[in-house]
Each structure stands twice: as structure tokens, then as C-alpha cells.
Amino acid sequence: ISSVELTRHFLDRLKQEDGQYNSFITITEEQALAEARAADERRAAGQATPWTGIPFAHKDIFCTSGVRTTCGSRMLEHFVPPYDATVVAKFRQAGAVCLGKTNMDEFAMGSSNESSHFGPVTNPWGLTRGERRVAGGSSGGSAAAIAARLVPAATATDTGGSIRQPAALCGVTGIKPTYGRVSRYGMIAYASSLDQGGAMARTAEDTALMLNVMAGFDPKDSTSIDREVPDYTATLNEPLKGLRIGLPREYFSDQLSPEMATRIREAVREYEKLGATVREVSLPNASLAIAAYYVIAPAEASANLSRFDGVRYGYRCDHPKDLMDLYTRTRAEGFGTEVKRRILIGTYALSHGYYDAYYLKAQKVRRLIQQDFVNAFQEVDVLMGPISPSPAFIQGEKTDDPVTMYLEDIFTIAVNLAGLPAMSVPAGFIDGLPVGLQIIGNYFEEGRLLNAAHQFQ
Ligand code: GLN
């Protein structure tokens, strides 16, 4: 099959089916077909990489040269970047065919993909039961599009769970690499010390192929790590005999629905059959993760989002009276409710007199949380647990209560505070709704995670 045929197939599916899911913000049909034609020529010339001619999509947080990049916000509704994010450039060099940009929570703030200026994403699995359920967030567009087979793979980002949770809720595979493994250059910043780009696809093998392209040092990202990138597909078939699995006691508490706990334990039993050993471990400070994250992330967001001032780029209000009016009306009109809430929390936490009480304190807690993981990895190779407390919920169910929404991140957020790699792997269903198993690894152990996930699939 040629890349042009393959690309047409997915473009047709996208145009016919995406009305019900709203998983894409922009479809780049013309560019995709041009890229597919170029890929077919490259293949004929014997210069193909594994990605040459393969259709995929980018989360709309990655800057794409000449293609509008909205970050799910009215603020950037008409923003066309003049450059590519490093991740985008890498897929381009590999010859992959980008079908467009996937929907997301505004500025990646959310766990349900209901805060997008371009409307919510609907979970394909919910629709099979006739219900409008959330796709998870913030990379809900990428997850729903893969689940609905509109695209075989998509990039995503994870600041507090945004790859793993939507992957879990939509029944696809997602990997959040170690902080620094994938360049953040050109990835619109939310909380810079937590943000990490990663991969989503149907299988671990496909995400390994994605990571082979995405990972690596980038001099344009000051927190990018200069360390060799292994071939992540080379170790997929290693036997799991002797793998030491730790189950964090705190992740099987009453926050977890009993059905979810059963599914996760069943998945872990499969690993025992493959020769792994299982023991309980403790992450004593796990209960502090949400509180620390929801100080640190908004604080960093409030600083990062100060650049949207109506002067340099993005939305600008009509007929400003003076500079102050320009700033205030631009930001009042350009940002949605959740983004404003985060900016207010973050600005407060960083303000004079409160910095020590909130931000500094949260950073100290962050270190304790990281130390818990360091200790756990003295005893085990990987940690396993749930991704979300329950399967995909009904749209609108949690929108009135931000704190309930924040609790959705209870099992994912500590990983970001520690900078560790982690995956979400499909692990069965509850009442026809997908469940994700979380596998957390030590720093730079993406290969081990992908191996474990692949053996399970
Ligand atoms: N749900 C979390 C938040 O709203 C995480 C989002 C993310 O990982 N981008 O901040």
C-alpha cells in the first residue's frame, strides 16, 4: 500500500467520523497528501525510515510551522507559528505524515478535555453505550482519535497525567518519558518543571517506535538531557522472569473503586504468570502529591502565561482604550475559566509574603515525594497501580467542582513531581469502559516499561 492510499484512508475516516468525537482541532489534508507523496518517492528511492509515509497527528500544543497551533485556547485560535517544535521537526525528518492537530484542554489544564475552547472531546467507548463520556485530559483528542481508529498514533504531553489518564480512559497505550528525555522546545509551556512530551498509540510497540524518533538531547531545551537514546524496540521481547514489581500500598486505598482495584490486581497476576515477583511497597508521602502539584503547576503556569498580553502574538481585544485595558481585556476574553483559575492561584502562591508558605513548602514536599520513589526503586524494578480512580465519567459530571476534577490526578501526579517515566497500558474493561494499568519506572527506564507493556499485550 502506498502512503498516499494510507493517508487518504485515514483522512476519509477523520472527515466522516470525527464529528461525533471532536478529537481534532485542525485537519491538514493538503499538507498531509503532499507529505505522503514525498514519502512514497523517498521510499522508492530506498531512503525510508520506519516512519516514512506513516500517518499520525500532533497534539495542538506542539508548534507546527505554517499550521495553526491553538493549545485549545481562544488566545491562540489564529496563531500560526513560524517554526517547528523539535518533536515536530524530528517526525518531519523521519518522513511521517501529519494529518493534523488534536484537541486538548486549554493550555493542557484539565483531566477531561472539557476546557478546550473548541469544545469537549467525546470518548468513543462511551458512545458505544450511547453515553457522552469524557475522553480524559488534557491529551483527550490524541487518545480518542487513536481509540476511534482515526489515526494510528499521536503525540501528547504529560504535566500531571495528561498522556496516561486519557490513554487509560480511551483504552490506548501511552508513555510519559523521563523529564528531559524529549525536547520541550516549541511545546507551549504550562508548568515547565513538569511538562514532558510523549507518545500515544494502540500498542507499546508503536509507542516505542515513536519514542525512537522523539527522544534525544536538544540544545534548544535547557532541561533536555544529553544521554544516548537506545533503540526502544530492541528490548520489547526480553523475558520478564525475575522482574520485581512493587505495588504502592497508598495506590490501593479507598480512593480506588473496588472494581478498578480488582482489574489492576488481575493484570498484576498476569505478570506473575510471566515470572515476575510482586511485593507491596510504600510511598508514604503520596497523599501530599495533589496539594503540592496544585501549587507548583499553577505557579509556573502563571509565569509562563504572562507572555499572552495581546501585544506580541495571539488574541488581542478590540479597540483598547490604553495599555492596561489592552492587557486586561485581552486576557479576560482570551482565556477560559480554568486557565484564569490557575493564573489566580499561581499568582497568589508566588506573591510576596506567600512564597515561603506555599511555593517553597510545595517544593520541599516535592522532594519528599521524589525520595519515596528513590527508596522504592531500591527494592523493586517497576511500580504498578491504577491510572484513574474510576473509568471515564459522564461529561459535565465534575465541571462544577474543580477539586473533584483535580482528584482525578491522584495516581498520576507524583510521577511528574519526581520526573519519572511511566506508562498506561490497556488492562480490560469495567462495564464496557476501558481501564488502564500504570507502570512506573526508574529514571531512563523507558525501555523496561515498554518491554513490560509489550509482554502484557
Ligand atoms: N490534570 C492535570 C492538570 O490539570 C494534568 C494536566 C496535564 O498533565 N497537562 O493540571
In short:
The protein is 39% helix and 14% strand.
What does this structure look like?
- With about 450 residues, the protein is of the alpha/beta class.
- The chain contains 15 helices and eleven strands.
- It has helices spanning about 5-20, 30-45, 85-95, 125, 140-145, 165-170, 205-215, 260-275, 290-305, 325-335, 335-350, 355-380, 400-405, 415-420, 445-455, and strands spanning about 25, 55-60, 95-100, 155, 175, 195-200, 245-250, 275-280, 380-385, 420-430, 435-440.
- Strands 4-6-5-10-11-9-7-8 form an eight-stranded mixed beta sheet, sandwiched between helices.
- β10 (about 420-430) and β11 form a beta hairpin.
- The longest helix has 24 residues, at about 355-380.
- The model has no long low-confidence stretch (mean pLDDT about 95).
- It binds glutamine.
- Glutamine (GLN) binds near residues 109, 138, 162, 190 and 409.
- CATH names the topology as Amidase signature (AS) enzymes
- Helix fraction by DSSP (H/I, runs of at least 4): 25-40%
Strand line-up in the sheet with most strands: 4-6-5-10-11-9-7-8
Distance between the termini: 26 Å
Q: Total helix count?
A: 15
CATH structural class: Alpha Beta
Major beta-sheet overview: 8 strands, mixed
Give me the count of strands: 11
Mean pLDDT: 97
CATH architecture: Alpha-Beta Complex
Bound molecules: glutamine
User: Any idea what the CATH superfamily is called?
Assistant: Amidase signature (AS) domain
Determine the strand fraction and express it as a percent band.
5-15%
What is the CA-atom radius of gyration, in angstroms?
A: 21 Å
**Helix/strand/pairing category:** alpha/beta
What is the number of domains?
A: 1
H/E order of the elements? HEHEHEHHEHEEHEHEHHHHEHHEEH
Domain Amidase: 5-450
EC number: 6.3.5.7
Active site: 59 (charge relay system), 138 (charge relay system), 162 (acyl-ester intermediate)
Catalytic activity: L-glutamyl-tRNA(Gln) + L-glutamine + ATP + H2O = L-glutaminyl-tRNA(Gln) + L-glutamate + ADP + phosphate + H(+)
